[in-house]
Every structure is written in structure tokens, then in C-alpha cells.
């Protein structure tokens, strides 16, 4: 029951319940938008950080910013940047959050080979900046900090599946930067007794996934080919294996990690793996264009529509420019710890359900760009 206090006129009234305040970096991204929805539904005041851009850069948040969205008045956007320490301190002083979700990063693996220094600053040093900003503003004993780590840390894997004890072997500038952030979190937890934890997230997708990531690239191309707006989809390593889950499910696990009494690191994964090839097959089949593969595996292999009005049409080709300089062949996470300690269900959304949702959304969006907000 709420506590009761006396008002100046002697009447009894319930004491106000303190609202929880959360800060999300990277709120304009896929995970950030789903997490903002989750926290608002739980009654949080949510502050999100966005970087300055010359063009509109938060379409995933447009529905939340609408006054008709439930609890939209509790959602606030601020300009800041993980590589600008001063801006982080200012935001923390102004908002005084109890929970911080650090989702901001330069998160594209292929791009990290082209922008290694920037990736190191944004995805590695940026984590340290936020941790130091927490200390500089005196919040180290009152705030809970979540760091979005990544399965790319495992890289050239040393064990299958990968769990919290599996050795890391990063294979890209992105993974190396994230490894710096991972150990910074552990160090600050041990050195300053901060509630700071890493969620080692395996690949997670949704209709809100960026269009340059392979799953969304596939489903967007499938929709465009179906509607006659694109001729062919070009991919890299068809046999790379990934553990793909739904971002909506994964942000729930992020929240659960900050509701524990003690900070711990967790693998967030489905425990199932599949190939890029299989993902493409499922996506084309969902759109009524089942494909068969022709030619030897490699640069000359093609995907051809097996039946229907586009039967015989080549819709998938392999292009060498999409291969990584150092490939990560297989990622498969073991979510046992999260399932046991957090009560999280890693199989809430199946891979088939994920593919179908993404393809259906891209088909709708190809016909009506405003359909994006439904997802």
C-alpha cells in the first residue's frame, strides 16, 4: 500500500510514488525504439540521446513522439554524443537516471574496416566516457548501467555454443572496440562497486533493422523484387551461420538484467543457428517465390525462382565485395544463464516468425512507406 502523509489542511493523502527514470543512448536505432516502448509501458520516464544530423534521423521514434502514443509525455530526446564527454555529464546532471542503457555505437562490422578509428572512439572509448560521466556526476552508487556488448567478440570461435565463459577472439575493428567496452564495464564494476553489466547480444533483427544489415537487406530486396522494383539481390558469404533472434525479445532481457540485486554479464541468444542462405530461402518463400540454388557454392552460385510467375528468374547472386576481410563463420549462443537466472524465454519469437514479420512489413512498406510505424 502507498504510504500516507498529512496535507497542510490536516487531510490524509497518498505520498507520491517516485517514477523510475531511464536514459537510452542509441535510442534512434532498432533496439532503442523497442526499449523505449517497453520502458514507457512500464511507467518509466525515458530520456533518449540522439546525435546531431542534417537530415531527419529518428523515423523509428515517430510513433512514440505522437501525442496519442501511450505515455508519450514521458519520452524526451536530447542531443549528445558518446565521444563528447561534456555532453554526457550535462545530460546525466539534468536527468539523474536510475538506469542507463548504452546502446549507442558504430555497429556495422563491414563499415568498421573502413572507419576503424571512429569505430574505436564510438564503440569503445564511448563506453569509458559514459562510465566516467557517471562517476563525475556522483551517480556511481545509484545508477544501474547496461552495456550492449556483442557476439562478434567471439569471432574465430573457440567453443560451440558460446557462453559467458567462452574465450574471445575478435575479428573486426568493431569487435575489438566492443571488447574494450566489455572490459571497461567489468573493471568499473570491480574497481568502483558500480552496478554495471554486459549483455552479450547475438544477432537480433526486426522490421526496424537498418537496411544495410544482411537480414533487412534480404527482406527489403525480396519485397522489391516481388513488386517489380528490383531485379536481383547481391550477397556475400551465403554459408555464414548466425544465431538470429527478435530485437523486441532481446530488449526485454536487457531490462531484466537491470532488475537484479547483483550486476552480472549475460549471453542473450536463441540457442539456434542458421545460414544466410537459409534466411534468404525463407524470405523468398514467404513472398511466394521459392528459390533453388544453381552452380557451385562460391562466386558463381545463383538463386533462381523455382515456381510461380517469376519461375526461372535469377534473384540472388554472390558478390565478392560483400565478403569480410576476416570472416566470422559461426555464431551460436548458449542462453542457459539468462533463462535460469532471469526467467527469460529465448524462444518467444521463432526464426520463421521473425522472417515472416520482416518480409510482410517490407512488402507493406514497399507499397506504403507509412506502414513502417505499425511494426
UniProtKB/TrEMBL annotation:
<dbReference type="InterPro" id="IPR006368">
    <property type="entry name" value="GDP_Man_deHydtase"/>
</dbReference>
<dbReference type="GO" id="GO:0042351">
    <property type="term" value="P:'de novo' GDP-L-fucose biosynthetic process"/>
</dbReference>
<dbReference type="Pfam" id="PF16363">
    <property type="entry name" value="GDP_Man_Dehyd"/>
</dbReference>
<dbReference type="GO" id="GO:0008446">
    <property type="term" value="F:GDP-mannose 4,6-dehydratase activity"/>
</dbReference>
<dbReference type="InterPro" id="IPR016040">
    <property type="entry name" value="NAD(P)-bd_dom"/>
</dbReference>
<keyword id="KW-0456">Lyase</keyword>
<comment type="similarity">
    <text>Belongs to the NAD(P)-dependent epimerase/dehydratase family. GDP-mannose 4,6-dehydratase subfamily.</text>
</comment>
<feature type="domain" description="NAD(P)-binding">
    <location>
        <begin position="23"/>
        <end position="358"/>
    </location>
</feature>
<protein>
    <recommendedName>
        <fullName>GDP-mannose 4,6-dehydratase</fullName>
        <ecNumber>4.2.1.47</ecNumber>
    </recommendedName>
</protein>
<dbReference type="InterPro" id="IPR036291">
    <property type="entry name" value="NAD(P)-bd_dom_sf"/>
</dbReference>
Amino acid at each position: 500500500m502507498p504510504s500516507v502523509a498529512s496535507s497542510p489542511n490536516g487531510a490524509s493523502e497518498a505520498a507520491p510514488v517516485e517514477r523510475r527514470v531511464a536514459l537510452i543512448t542509441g535510442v534512434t536505432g532498432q533496439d532503442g525504439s523497442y526499449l523505449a516502448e517497453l520502458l514507457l509501458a512500464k511507467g518509466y520516464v525515458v530520456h533518449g540521446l540522439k546525435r546531431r544530423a542534417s537530415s531527419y534521423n529518428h523515423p523509428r521514434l515517430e510513433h512514440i513522439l505522437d501525442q496519442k502514443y501511450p505515455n508519450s509525455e514521458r519520452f524526451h530526446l536530447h542531443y549528445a554524443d558518446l565521444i563528447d564527454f561534456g555532453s554526457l555529464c550535462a545530460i546525466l546532471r539534468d536527468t539523474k537516471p536510475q538506469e542507463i542503457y548504452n546502446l549507442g555505437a558504430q555497429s556495422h562490422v563491414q563499415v568498421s574496416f573502413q572507419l576503424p578509428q571512429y569505430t574505436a572512439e564510438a564503440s569503445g572509448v564511448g563506453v569509458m566516457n559514459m562510465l566516467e560521466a557517471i562517476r563525475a556526476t556522483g551517480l556511481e552508487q545509484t545508477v544501474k548501467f547496461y552495456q550492449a556488448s556483442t557476439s562478434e567478440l567471439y569471432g574465430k570461435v573457440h567453443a560451440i555454443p558460446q557462453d559467458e565463459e567462452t574465450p574471445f577472439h575478435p575479428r573486426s575493428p568493431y569487435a575489438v572496440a566492443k571488447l574494450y567496452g566489455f572490459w571497461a564495464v567489468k573493471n568499473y564494476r570491480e574497481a568502483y562497486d558500480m552496478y554495471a553489466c554486459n549483455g552479450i547480444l547475438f544477432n537480433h533483427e526486426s522490421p526496424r533493422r537498418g537496411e544495410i544489415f544482411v537480414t533487412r537487406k534480404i527482406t527489403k530486396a525480396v519485397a522489391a523484387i516481388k513488386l517489380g522494383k528490383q531485379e536481383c539481390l547481391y550477397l556475400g558469404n551465403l554459408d555464414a551461420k548466425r544465431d538470429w533472434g527478435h530485437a523486441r525479445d532481446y530488449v526485454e532481457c536487457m531490462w531484466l538484467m537491470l532488475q537484479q540485486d547483483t550486476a552480472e554479464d549475460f549471453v542473450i541468444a536463441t540457442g539456434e543457428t542458421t545460414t544466410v542462405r537459409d534466411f534468404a530461402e525463407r524470405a523468398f518463400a514467404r513472398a511466394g517465390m521459392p528459390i533453388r540454388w544453381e552452380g557451385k557454392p562460391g562466386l558463381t552460385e545463383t538463386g533462381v525462382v523455382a515456381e510461380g510467375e517469376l519461375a526461372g528468374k535469377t534473384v540472388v547472386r554472390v558478390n565478392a565485395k560483400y565478403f569480410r576481410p576476416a570472416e566470422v563463420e559461426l555464431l551460436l549462443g548458449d542462453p542457459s544463464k539468462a533463462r535460469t537466472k532471469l526467467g527469460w524465454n529465448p524462444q518467444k519469437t521463432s526464426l520463421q516468425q521473425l522472417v515472416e514479420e520482416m518480409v510482410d512489413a517490407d512488402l507493406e512498406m514497399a507499397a506504403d512507406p507509412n506502414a513502417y510505424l505499425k511494426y
